[in-house]
């Protein structure tokens, strides 16, 4: 597949995701309007939409209708967006810049940021539970359950808690992986699961391959994030760079060194592609996504 | 029905809710253990479990299996518990005492309190989505959707946002009602809806009556809360009393005066009972609950 085909697909998914999110978020003229404005501020107009891209890429493999995948993509992206809002708050990472804009608690206030995150999480589940999203209601419940597990104490929120406990600690490579499997990996895995569950082709071997792929991609995403955090300057990244190292947070770069971290990323990319193995051309967007994640500059 | 029968039922529901919550919460030996400990601290060993009582009361009307209602009851109680944890945080009400114990951010720290709330919300949806909770998966999705709406920006979180905006404002009785319909009313309504949806008897007229009942009860609960906040001392209430008035928050007592607030509570109780109207003795626990909510001392 040519790079141009992938770029076009990526832009089309990013564009339809923006539209779907704008439609899913409560309108500005609805009470409480300030909260709704802040929710839209937190979600719209930014981000590379990596999780929606993964959901749509997996949906292609199971022949899902893109309109259906939009809903799953919105759900995972809303969870991601809420986690950024809470993570940026003064009691967590205390960041003032996100995607080149003031963070929600800076633009509004701490209480509003707290409620924005809370309401975005509720909205994610509400969207995913709307009856009739897919014909098989039992499978739709499974999607909701996956999102719950991925977001909670054994997933993303748990990863944040492990992260808090690991500041200033000398942790092992295994412990670092446990943290990332929770913090970033769980929601990336859920993005692929939810996208795949949207389609009618529910072949167990294919689903197992997609799951293996998503686990590698989740870790890969974090390793590349650590590399970028070490390399990039604030202007390129759109967030305060080098912050993890300054905050004395363990990263793959501080643990392995820059070169070994890069080698590990290449290994994870190869493993991810191997997991997709014999799947036909319908998995090509996922293959291209793996490469995109390694070579991204954001 | 005698008061003793109601008291026994109430104690049995409170006890089985405590057990169900303890089983639903992640065990202490699971990573991240500190987060799981804080989640259990936030949820277990306290509270009158009004929402679980309403869910079980409604479940009686639709002949639901109590084990099934336990799950719905846990879901609404986890949402309630998370809202208390976030509401008590320094950037919101900044409360240090809850149910006679230090609040989560005091006992642990702000970041942990934030994550405890986030993870409790995820867990609520995860529990409710577990496939097979009721035989009708489409109806179970409706339960999840109701909980999403009740928790989000058009429900509880939205009510908190309206509350923030109304501090120090002279608001009308109508505006106060809009706030409470969102802040407390939505989740109380969902408690009744979810409990009712657990049962096999899904008669539309009965469900409509239960819904009317729950709307009155939601408002009643808040009016009584305002009366108690005005009357009670810290020892009786187990939380810092008179705080709303000191924080310059509008209440039914500041708006109507104590006597008129009491009269309004009596009117709401009568309306709630009238909504149940012709329903048979299976609705008696809900009838007794209405009276209990008016005469409670917590």
TrEMBL record, chains A, B:
One of its GO terms (cellular component) is cytoplasm. SUPFAM superfamilies: Terpenoid synthases. Its cofactor is Mg(2+). The keyword Transferase applies. Keywords: Isoprene biosynthesis, Magnesium, Metal-binding, Transferase. Pfam families: polyprenyl_synt. GO terms for biological process: terpenoid biosynthetic process. InterPro entries: Isoprenoid_synthase_dom_sf, Polyprenyl_synt, Polyprenyl_synt_CS, Prenyl_diphosphate_synthase. GO terms for molecular function: metal ion binding; prenyltransferase activity. Belongs to the FPP/GGPP synthase family. This is Polyprenyl synthetase family protein.
